[in-house]
Amino acid sequence: MSHTYDDSNIFAMILRGEIPKSTVIETDNSLAFRDINPQAPVHVLLIPKGKYVTIDDFAANASAEETHDFWATFASIIEREGLREKGFRVISNAGDHGLQEVPHFHLHILGGEVLGPILAR
Ligand code: 5GP
To answer: Does the model's pTM come out above 0.85?
Structure first.
């Protein structure tokens, strides 16, 4: 799978401020916002601001600063959205088999109710 970044993807447009978003947290290197089509009472998308296509691209190529900022922001989301006590689920779709729609790495952070089986196929 190619890690070539497409600047026209919708999260790149969100990062450039070209389309509206519902911000949860923004830092120097990361942005969290609400999914436009929520699949649970809490459905937050967490993205790095850097141009990473998939989770493995980010894992292999992000700087220590970007990586630290990303996971610190993740911890803040769990705290602020009240997900720690009851739990939550994190999903990152990658590539064709993962049915990734938007080719900018993102975590789906889901919670607020019992989420059901991990996969429906
Ligand atoms: P993927 O299939 O790439 O893992 O998920 C992409 C997610 O982005 C979907 O859950 C979809 O609802 C969400 N999404 C697509 N376009 C927009 C948008 O313009 N704004 C927001 N907030 N979410 C979007």
So the answer is: yes
